[in-house]
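Lab intake sheet, docking and co-folding queue.

SAMPLE TYPE: protein with bound small molecule
LIGAND NAME: adenosine-5'-triphosphate
LIGAND FORMAT: SMILES
REQUESTED OUTPUT: full 3D complex as structure tokens
PRIORITY: normal
SUBMITTED BY: R.K., bench team

The fields below were copied directly from the construct record.
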Amino acid sequence: MYARGHGIILNEPTVIALNSRTQEVLAMGHEAWQMIGRTPGYIVAVRPLRGGAITDFEITQRMIRLLFQRAGVSRLYRARVLICVPSAITHVEQRAVLEAARRAGAAQTYLIEQPMAAAIGAGLPIHEPMGNMVVDVGGGTTEVAVISLGGVVSLEAVRVGSFDVDAAIQTYVRREYGIAIGERTAEEIKLAIGSAYAVDDGYKAEVRGRDLMTGLPKTILLVPEEVRGAIEEQIRAICDAVVACLARTPPELAQDLILNGVHLVGGGGMLRGLDRRISEETDLPVHLVDAPLECVVLGAGRCLENFDSLKEMFMARSQAR
Ligand SMILES: Nc1ncnc2c1ncn2[C@@H]1O[C@H](COP(=O)(O)OP(=O)(O)OP(=O)(O)O)[C@@H](O)[C@H]1O
Ligand SMILES: [Mg+2]
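RESULT FIELD (auto-filled):
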């Protein structure tokens, strides 16, 4: 969350912990993430925005309300809100986002496509007649966009992201070692030794899980190479999305990319060696931006700070009431 004049005011995972008996919200963000896999049966941790779309409208709305509360937004302030959404969002989903924000207290809501916000956040010359490519590897989605003259010229979006990498690691450990590990442990393995290209292979990760045969806790050692193999399918899908987007890009703009390169954003983009791997597959230079996790929100923030000059970048707005 970014507030005009204040910068980033809140930076937490989109997770919420619910009491499934009473539907009461127990925690959100970091606190809820700590609870995943560690709660009694009736407390469930949910990601209401899994895959980049609203999977649970009620909960999303409640989460937006909580976020507004934390930011001090109430109906009284008649807040103007800008929300970043995936480019591949459908009209029905756009309505759902706008409606969720309206009910949570926003006076006026605007939507901006995430790749556009990312490009603005990365400081790319989006208004020029020149090809700029942004690859955003998020948790649930990967979006690849070529932007020129302030618009998205070609787009490829796939519902594969960094959560799928975690899931692949979980599956691998279960299959190869007969050990069950949680979602959070899988993410820790990814952060510690995950890679998309053979770089820094000197480390090993000690992993604790539950032996599926004996039911007892057990420790194993994983090496980067086997993890790379385990997540190859997901990395492949991400690279294929980049290639598919390039194939759809008009030649003049594609040519610009040889000089300008590809800009990699999103938390998933920080996976070790992913830049090298995409570069190898596309024969283009790939730059990981300075703040991959914050790039989108910083771009949206810049739109708020320069509202009148950048508002033509927005894709939709709620009806004025
Ligand atoms: N250093 C890192 N290496 C690899 N992955 C990382 C790293 N840091 C964060 N991630 C992963 O990035 C993901 C979150 O990225 P991001 O915040 O860009 O996603 P999102 O914008 O919330 O998701 P989406 O764009 O799909 O809606 C998490 O799965 C996290 O594990
Ligand atoms: Mg994202």
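REVIEWER NOTE: The mean pLDDT is 90.
SIGN-OFF: pending second check by T.M.
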